[in-house]
Amino acid sequence: MWTTLLESFELVLYFDQQVWEIVGVSLQVSLTALVIGTVIGLPLGGILATNDFVGRKWLITILNSLMNVPTVIIGVLIYLLLSRSGPLGSLGLLFSTTGMIIAQSLITIPLIAAISRQIIADGWAIHGETLKTLHLSNRSQIKWILWDCRFSLLLAVLAGFGRAISEVGTVMIVGGNIANSTRTLTTAISLETSKGDLPFALALGIVLISIVLMINLLASVMKHIAEKNYG
Amino acid sequence: MANLIQSIEIENLYLAPHDKTILDIKNLSIPIDQITAIIGPNGSGKTSLLKTLSGLQTNKNLHLQHPFKSIFLLLNQVTFLKMSVRDNLAILQDAYPRIHDQMINDVLQRFHLEHLANQAATKLSAGEKQRVAIARAVLVEAALILLDEPTANMDPATADFIEDQILQLAKQGTRFLMASHDMGQVQRLSQHVILIVDGQVAEVDSTESFFNQPQTQLGKHFLARHLGWHA
After folding, report:
1. Burial, B126: exposed, middle or buried (Cβ in 10 Å; 0-12, 13-18, 19+)?
2. Using CB atoms, which residue from A133, A137, A144 is nearest to B81?
3. Superfamily (CATH H level) for A2-230
4. CATH H-level superfamily of B6-227
5. How close does chain B come to A38, measured CA to CA in Å?
6. Which of A2, A149, B32, B145 could form a disulfide with A123 if both were Cys (CB 3.0 to 4.6 A apart)?
7. Are B75 and A129 within 8 A, CB to CB?
8. DSSP percent split of chain A into helix, strand, coil, nearest 5
9. pLDDT tens-digit map of B28-38
10. pTM, 2 dp
C-alpha cells in the first residue's frame, strides 16, 4: 500500500504528462459546464424566488427533483439525443468534450438553480419590500438580490462545481472515455483501477481532491473577507 | 410661504389577507399641509395604509386619487444590501437614471454621512440607517414621503436630527404622511392627524384640535390611554 502511495505522489510531483492532460480535460469540461450552469441557474433561481406566477410551485418541485435524478440517466438521455440515429446526431457531438459539457450543464443547471432559489428566497424575505419601495424594475430587483446574496451563492456555485468535477456516469456514457480526448479524472480513475494500475489511479485521485480542496479554500477565504467587510 | 393643503382621496380600501380584516375604509380624504400623522394602537392598520398608498399593497376595487408625482415609502424595518452606504444609494440609478454621483455626494453631505460613505451599510446604527433611508427619498426628489415610525428605537439626539431634517424638507415643499406612536413627535411635526382604530378611520382633524378636544369617543379613549387626557 505504501509503495502504491509513494508511486502515486511521484507521478503527481514529477508532472506526469498523461496526468496533466486528463486534468486539463476535466477542468475544461467542468468549468465550462459550471459557467453555463451559473449563467442560467442563478437567474432562474432568482426568478423563481422573487416572482409569483401560475405553475411556480410545480417548477420548483421539478427543479428539486432534477437535482436528485441519477446522473447516469441524464447520460443515457443525452446519449440518445446525440447518437447518430438521435435527433441531434448530425451535429457529431457524441464522444466529444462539447457533448460532455452539454451533459454536465444539464446536471449543474438544476442544482445551482435549486440551491440559489432557496438562498435568494431567504434574501428576498428580508429585502423584497425595501427593493420594491425603491421603484426598481423586476430585473433590477433580481440583480441586486443576487448581488446581496453573492457570498452565500458561492456555495451554490461550489456545489455545482463539486457535482461536475466528481461526476463519472454521464461523462463516461457521453464522452466515451477516449484517451487524449474525452478522458477525465473520474473516468480515468475508474478505468485505471479496473486495470490494476493503482498508483496512476491514486495520483489522479490526489489531483482531484487537491483541486476540490483548493477551490473550496479559496471560496471560503473570499467569503470570510467579504463578510468581514460588508456584514 | 404657506403651503396649499393637498389631499389624498381613498375609496374602497379593504384589505383582509387570510380572512383577517386589516383595513376597511369606504371613503377617506387625507389632508396634507406639510406633515400629516397617522396614529392609532398597535395593529390598527397604519403601516398597511402607508403600504397601500405606496402601491406595495392593493385591493380590487381600490380607488386612489392624489396630486403627487412621486411617492416614496420609508419602511420602519428598512433594510440595506451588503454593500457600502454609497452603493446602497447608487442602486437608485437603475430606476432614476438622472441621479448622478455628485447628487449622491450632496445627500451624503447633507445627512452627515460622508465619513460613512464607503462603510458597509448593514453595520450602521439605527439612526445612521434612518439617515441613509431618508437620503434615498431626497435623492429621488419624492413629492410625498411616507414614513413609518421614523424615529423608533433612536436616541433623543438622533431623533432630533431626523425630525429637523423632516421639518427642513417639509419647508422646502416635500409633503409627509407619517405613522407614529410618539405623540410628542406628532404634536411637534404634524398639522393634521388621522386616528385609525381596528382598521377603520376613527377621526380626521387638525393636530391642535385633536389634542385639545378630540371629537369622537375613540379619539378621547386613545388620548386618555396615551397622554392621560381627560375631557
Report:
1. middle
2. A144
3. MetI-like (1.10.3720.10)
4. P-loop containing nucleotide triphosphate hydrolases (3.40.50.300)
5. 21
6. A149
7. yes
8. 80, 0, 20
9. 999 999 999 99
10. 0.79
